[in-house]
Write a structure and sequence with these properties.
single chain, 8-stranded mixed sheet, mainly beta, 40% strand, glutathione-dependent formaldehyde- activating enzyme (gfa)
Length: 140
């Protein structure tokens, strides 16, 4: 196993380590992610929940209803508001880590864009990367 990577919120009250190095970035352009982040999209890495350890602070939660109708729990610092991760209520084994909170970015590259139909016109979406107008299709 490689050394854990660390991250945290803007004010430093929420800190965590991840024992699994994220390598793939998924960018979500849905309007809920835009509003939750205050940006044109969120940049995310899916990691196993048991790979993340919070070493200080406890994120607050907001239960959001996604366009699919499913509940997406969004976790953020209650002091500075930094989004830390989100977690589909129906997939507790996985966390969707907001990679902007990592202390060092590593070699990650965007590998997929979701909800491109609601992308802001000023967001650049590389046409050579896998893109989906809404969620990615379920695996058969």
């Amino acid at each position: 196993m490689s050394d854990p990577i660390s991250g945290g919120c803007l004010c430093g009250k929420v800190r965590y380590t991840v024992s699994q190095s994220p390598t793939r970035l998924i960018t979500c352009h849905c309007t809920n992610c835009q509003k939750a982040s205050g940006a044109g999209a969120t940049h995310n890495a899916v990691v196993a929940t048991d790979a993340v350890t919070f070493i200080s602070g406890k994120p607050k939660a907001y239960a959001d209803t996604a366009a699919s109708g499913n509940t997406l729990n969004r976790y953020f610092c209650g002091d500075c508001g930094s989004p830390i991760y989100s977690q589909p209520a129906n997939l507790p084994k996985y966390m969707i880590l907001k990679v902007g909170t990592l202390d060092t970015p590593g070699d990650m590259k965007i590998t997929m864009n979701l909800w491109t139909k609601s992308a802001r016109p000023w967001m650049h979406i590389d046409p050579s990367i896998e893109c989906h107008a809404e969620n990615r299709p379920a695996k058969a």
